[in-house]
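EI: anyone free to look at a 454-residue chain?
SC: sure, send it
EI:
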Amino acid sequence: MYREASDFLQDWKARKNRKPLIIRGARQVGKTFLVEQFASDFDLFIRINFEENPEFKVLFQTNDVKTILENLSFEFRTKIEPEKTLLFLDEIQACPEAIPALRYFYEKVPELFLIAAGSLLDHVLNEMNYSMPVGRVEFLYVHPLSFKEFLIAGGENLLVNYLSLFNTDKTITHLIHEKLLKLLRTYFFVGGMPEAVKTYFETSDLLEVERVHESILTSMELDFTKYTKNNQAEYLRRVFRYVPRGIGNKVKYVNIDRSVKSIYLKQAFTKLEMSRIVHRIMATSSAAIPLENNLKEDVFKPLFFDIGLASHILKVRLRDLGNLMLLNEGTLAEQFIGQQLLCRQPFFIDRRLFYWNREKRDASAEIDYLVEIENKVIPIEVKAGKTGSLKSLQVFVAEKQKDFAIRFNTDLPSLTEANVSLKFGNTVKPVTYNLLSLPLYMVGFIDEIPGLQG
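SC: here you go
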């Protein structure tokens, strides 16, 4: 199964100044598969899973990396030549002592190809009494398969090439558009978890996909006891099951469970975020880079890490692909766009998501997403169908003096000059801006569209 992150690993391998690489991502998004596939490029591949083989922890009680390599040679009965060897420390959070040792691998044996991974790594880092080897390691962030990767997994490489060559002077034929919408609806249900994608394309059995989803969700809930006390695991489960229902809405802890103190639910949300299972779409009043400058720290919307699992929790039962957009359409469309925005390259960036809101009596407004493209902030509105009000978008471009915006919907692409009149107090002002409407399935290609900002 092709993952775009594979190209990142090849670039990392070719760089002379590479550092030990830490892969971060939620459980079962394909971190181990990615490394094992990459391992075919090496003469020797050594994998240590600290959860499956805790006996290896004793080797990392020292920071003498040459002694560590010598002991590994004895354990695996093979000579380790660093320049020909890939050492993979999987589930490294189960052996915190190995994390600071990464610095010494970089300083003493820089020719060794060293990768570490851990889905619960953030919890360990948060509790460590010593610091991460800053400046001595680099990161790769892995998410569930993007829609682009989903298309490739289904053998639709020609469609991917077609979309990658799109520009605002071209259109998309109705035949291709309808085919992509059908594939999009399938992705809404299957999602991007590698096991679910593999099952779907091997069996075409949606019931089997549901079984995979249920198994993944159950295993994740069982994991909760690994990073919280038993009496707090229930709070994690409540937030975990709430997030798909809360997509698109500002989080109010009272809406999760009125009987639980908000501080406990807030802590549960933070722990799930550290596990990379949920993400915060942060509210900002800014329209300029960096968006972090004017965050409303306690105002955010939730995003689940995979749309297929979110659909399963929402009890979406896909029987007729054509009707999926009638079910939870706004929730799934906003989840889809957010999930794809998180997958944007470069993969060494731990992306954050933002939205703009203005809360005023009789004059509230909200933009679904703000993204940075070529050092400019672009407002994005998400519509599940072909039409929908753009009042908030018009307010935003008028207040922030923007001349370009993007709308994602299910219609064919178009680029138009919008001319509207807005009332500000007792004054009516004309507002003019360029509106690029794109079908939802184009979100993974926005960085490839030439002249995107007009």
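EI: The chain has a mean pLDDT of 91.
SC: 👍
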